[in-house]
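Q: My labmate handed me this sequence with no annotations at all. I'd like to see what the chain might look like in three dimensions before we decide whether it's worth expressing. Could you predict it?
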Amino acid sequence: MDRSTFIQLLLNNQDKLKYRDTLVDACLEHNYISILLDNMAKVHDEDSNFSARILELACKNKLEIIIPYLDTFCDLITKVKLNGVVRACAKICELMMIALLIKNDVHFNRSFKNDHLEKIVEAGFNWMITDQKIAVQAYTMYTLYLLGSKYDWIHHELVLNIEKNIPTGSTGYKNRGRKVIKAIKTNTTLRL
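A: Here is what I predict for the chain of 192 residues:
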């Protein structure tokens, strides 16, 4: 699929779900990540939600495609506003931290800079203290939990944040939050 067809299908307001898999495949085959990130940078444009979803699905298939765009992605996550974009970014952050901190993926070990990690931490705590959907908070709890192995102060702040929000949180929030707190306080591996 050429670039203009990709953009046309991406911005097509009808039958978006019909073209989702085609767009993901084209993104993986032709590396159209920059187009998706440019659309996601339009933080108040509803079309950015679909671009974020395509990026998330492409990353689930082949996570290393995001590596050349880490600077752009990490700058973007601190600015996104729309629920769908935030959710996709939170999931991609979680996937990257799993690759980096659990799987010790050599590509991510070589590519991640402290600046990237700091922006993920900043975005993550921002998502934890603002009114976000449970999926965003669940992905973010796990991301920050993993980053706590690299930055000592994160676990303490994460526990405080979760404890503060558990009384008013959803059932899913309470469940995930209690597991994260237990893993931190008992210094055991988090099992999800």
